[in-house]
Give the backbone structure.
Amino acid sequence: MYRPLADEIRPTDLSQVVGQEHILGSNGLLRRVIESGQVPNMIFYGPSGVGKSTVASIIARQTNRALRKLNATTAGIADIKEIIAELDTLMTPGGVLLYLDEIQYFNKKQQQSLLEFMENGKITLIASTTENPYFYVFGAVLSRATVFEFKPLTPEAVRSAVLRAIDLLQTRRKTAVTLEDGVLDHIVSACGGDVRKALNAVELLFSAARGDVITLTDAEAVSQRSALRYDKDGDEHYDILSAFQKSIRGSDPDAAIHYLARLLEAGDLISPCRRMLVTAAEDIGLAHPQVLSIVKACVDTARELGLPEARIPLADAVILLATSPKSNSGDKAISTAMEDIRNGKHGDVPDHLKDTHYGGAQKLGRGQGYKYAHAHPNNYVPQEYLPDRLRGTVYYAYGDNKTEQAAKRYWDLVKGE
């Protein structure tokens, strides 16, 4: 019976697990918990192929618990009841460790069905998820579990697993296989930190090898775009977009271009366009007022061209944004004003500013005392525009950039301040 290579060389103890030094290193918290034998309910959060299910299997073995696995995409309450029925029987003398993969696919009722047994200790739950558990796991379950984050593996960590796989396959073939220069490096870097992808690539390359040489061309064909972790509805999507905007805001054109490339390589044209438009207004704003129209022109051009040519105007726009002077004075002004409105801090429009374009307006005192700015020198005349209860409120503070400071100097002169 066929057994995938990734499963065949799956680690059986913690010393064989690659990566995750932050939790499984010699002084890592998770390692110390496992070695204590007193394992709590846990949630393993991280991308695929980084060791979550492997570590759960090791925990079951080291704590003498019966391991039961369910995948929330296909399992239901009936499956949980079957596992519960095994409790206190000869089948589970040491208790049950339930590994529930992709817990985010369980609805609230399904997740709540686990609570009683999580509390009395008869079932130790290790749930795994590729999505942020604080968004997708219900609070009652979260409060009874400890979250451990598993990170993508570095190429160095993947390399040791790949070398083990190559040694095994070499032994099985009974003949030496030569890897062209660059094959090993490409496999460990192109898997995107997913050791399972790397091992699947090795297995496929050995199966398809002609003669005793594995070529770099074949390795590139196998991996293709597998290094890219991206889900338009998942954490990775929002993490990349967040890093994209923060890199522009931080005036780092190299980082901004890097994240743009990741978005475009995943085929996502819309998200960076939207984020660039809001960044132009939020982070550059009045320091370079023309930048919004320039970015809008680049975005329109990119959407007209489509990929791959769209990358060029978008790259130009990103570099312009990242290297432009920055100001968020407009964003701060409107945010503060809207907070006041939400808190009920507003008031009646002053009578002299009210509409006068209807019969009877004068009888109501509308518009009386209004001073027409254009009838005065420099098109300015002092008068109150805010409601009485907000008199003297300041929302806009001039930014310290050249453009806004020039405007400030002009108005200070006009207003005689």
